[in-house]
Design a protein that fits this description.
By secondary structure, the chain is mostly helical. It has one domain. The chain has four helices and two strands; from the N terminus they run ααβααβ. It starts with a helix and ends with a strand.
């Protein structure tokens, strides 16, 4: 599975860059954050009625956002 992921046509280069400490491109970060916040916001507002779970979802989204912003950013599409 590990080798399959590293050699995957779409995701392999992203994973290799991350593992080598190169980080992510700004485009990949922005797309990731847009999807993250769209899904978390939808889930917290429309799917999950329990306040504690909504708060947990938002804390997770904040933690992932922090992680992505701390990662090195390099120029390039991949």
């Amino acid at each position: 599975m590990y080798n399959w992921l590293l050699n995957h046509k779409l995701f392999g280069q992203y994973i290799k860059n991350y593992l080598e400490g190169k980080g992510m491109s700004l485009r990949a970060k922005l797309i990731s954050l847009a999807f993250l916040w769209t899904i978390i916001a939808y889930s917290a507002l429309f799917v999950m009625p329990m306040l504690i779970v909504q708060v947990i979802l938002l804390v997770v989204a904040l933690a992932v956002t922090l992680h992505l912003t701390i990662l090195p950013t390099f120029k390039g599409s991949k």
